[in-house]
Design a protein that fits this description.
The protein has 203 residues and is an all-alpha fold. It has one domain. The chain is built from 9 helices and no strands. The chain is elongated and about 55 Å long. The protein starts with a helix and ends with a helix.
Length: 203
C-alpha cells in the first residue's frame, strides 16, 4: 500500500459519503435516538474547525511561523473523527475482545493517514498533530457518550452494503477539491488576488 493510498483514507471525497452512511445507519442500528445527532455534531464540528483554521490563514495570513502552522490537517482531523466511530458501529455486537481490537484499528488508521501527510510533504508536524488531537478528541467524546448505547449487529451482507460506497471511492481514487475551494473562498472573502501561502508565512 502506497503513502498516497493511505492518505486517501483521510480524503473528503471518501470521508463525507462515509459519514453520511454512518448517519443513515445509526437510527436503524442504535437504540439511542440521540446517537445520530451526536455523530452529526462531532463530524460537523471537525469540518468546521478545520475549515475556519484554513480560512484564517489563506485569507488573512493568521498562522505560526514558529510552529510552521497554517491550519489543522483536514485529512488527519476528519479521519481521526470518523474511523474510530465507523469501527465502533460495525463491531457493535462482537465479543469485547474483537470489538476492542476493531476500534483500535479505527484509531490506527488516522495515525497512518497523519504519517502519510508528512511523508508526502502535505503538512507540517504541528498541523498533523493538531489535526489528530482534534479528531481523536471528538471521536473519543462521541464514543464516551455512547457507553450505554446498544447496537444491533451487522450481517456480512449488511457490512458489504455499508462498505460498498467507500470501497468504490477507494478504487476510483478521485480526490476532493476542498483545498482549492477554500483557497478561492478565502481570497474572495479577504479581497485578495490570491491566498496566502506557506512561503508568505516565513517572510
Amino acid at each position: 500500500m502506497s503513502w498516497k493510498t493511505l492518505t486517501y483514507f483521510g480524503d473528503s471525497m471518501l470521508l463525507i459519503p462515509t459519514a453520511v452512511i454512518i448517519a443513515l445507519v445509526l437510527p436503524w442500528k442504535s437504540d439511542n435516538r440521540q446517537t445520530v445527532w451526536y455523530w452529526v455534531l462531532a463530524f460537523g464540528l471537525a469540518g468546521l474547525v478545520v475549515s475556519v483554521s484554513k480560512i484564517l490563514f489563506l485569507g488573512f495570513g493568521i498562522g505560526s511561523a514558529r510552529f510552521n502552522f497554517t491550519g489543522f490537517s483536514g485529512h488527519s482531523a476528519m479521519s481521526a473523527t470518523l474511523w474510530p466511530v465507523m469501527m465502533w458501529l460495525i463491531s457493535g455486537r462482537w465479543s469485547p475482545r474483537w470489538r476492542l481490537f476493531t476500534i483500535g484499528i479505527g484509531y490506527l488508521i488516522p495515525l497512518m493517514v497523519g504519517l502519510s501527510r508528512l511523508v508526502i510533504h502535505a503538512h507540517s508536524k504541528s498541523e498533523v498533530l493538531a489535526g489528530l488531537m482534534l479528531g481523536f478528541t471528538l471521536s473519543t467524546a462521541f464514543l464516551l457518550t455512547q457507553r450505554r448505547t446498544s447496537l444491533k449487529g451487522f450481517s456480512l451482507p449488511q457490512i458489504g452494503v455499508a462498505l460498498l460506497v467507500p470501497l468504490l471511492l477507494l478504487s476510483h481514487g478521485r480526490v476532493a477539491t476542498t483545498q482549492q475551494f477554500l483557497e478561492r473562498f478565502s481570497a474572495n472573502l479577504a479581497g485578495l488576488e490570491k491566498p496566502f501561502t506557506r512561503a508568505d508565512l516565513f517572510r
